[in-house]
Design goal:
single chain, Alpha-Beta Plaits, CBS domain, 2 domains, CBS-domain, alpha+beta, 10 strands, four-stranded mixed β-sheet
Length: about 210
């Protein structure tokens, strides 16, 4: 899975001299939480709904309505945007984007092809991919199995699954001498998979309907 397969293409952008009030209006109108900031065809910043809200005067301010309106009319995105911007390449694996967002504690990344902005990827997009990859909408059974941490153990375990079919599998934990796998099985006689696994000598630790 690549970032380009899950990103929002051709994101709405603003210029550095865009008034903050205009940027807030755009976010509300489009339902977004962040806007890339472009100048001369180059990405120069990123502004989020939090950045914009933080720039608004406090309710405890002593400024008059006229003074606040005057200040807000002059306040631009350039003054509140984040820079430099953390980005990710369109052809990067999706897990790289997920790792970047987790490490930097940010909710989205502009997506680049060289110097060109081509999209934006967010935590929500990563969650959509996670749901797709794990087959969470396919039903069936979710089965956790501890298999020996040795070559060939996965292939041996999989032989006990038919006539049902494995549609997803993931490593959930590393245990002393074992790996805990979580797999989703669908199809014919899924209810019999746990018993077949146990009969084959596998350690089934959890079974849940999909």
């Amino acid at each position: 899975m690549l970032v380009r397969d899950w990103m929002t293409k051709d994101p709405v952008v603003v210029a550095p001299d865009t008034p903050v009030l205009e940027a807030i209006r755009l976010l509300k109108e489009k339902g977004f939480r962040r806007l890339p900031v472009m100048e001369g065809g180059r990405l120069v910043g990123l502004v989020t709904d939090k950045d914009l809200k933080d720039a608004m005067p406090s309710k405890a301010t002593t400024l008059s309505v006229w003074e606040m309106n005057y200040l807000l009319a002059k306040l631009t995105v350039r003054e509140v945007m984040a820079r430099p911007v953390v980005t990710v390449e369109a052809d990067a694996p999706l897990e790289k984007a997920a790792l970047l967002m987790e490490e930097r504690k940010i909710g989205g990344l502009p997506v680049m092809e060289g110097e060109r902005l081509v999209g934006i990827i967010t935590v929500t997009d990563v969650l959509r991919a996670f749901i797709e990859v794990l087959g969470l909408k396919l039903g069936g059974l979710r089965i956790a199995v501890d298999i020996p941490d040795v070559p060939g153990a996965l292939a041996q375990m999989a032989q006990a699954v038919p006539p049902a079919n494995i549609v997803s599998i993931a490593t959930a934990a590393h245990l002393p001498g074992y790996q805990r796998l979580v797999m989703r099985v669908v199809g014919e006689d899924v209810e019999g998979v746990p018993k077949r696994l146990e009969a084959a000598g596998e350690r089934v630790v959890d079974v849940r309907p999909g």
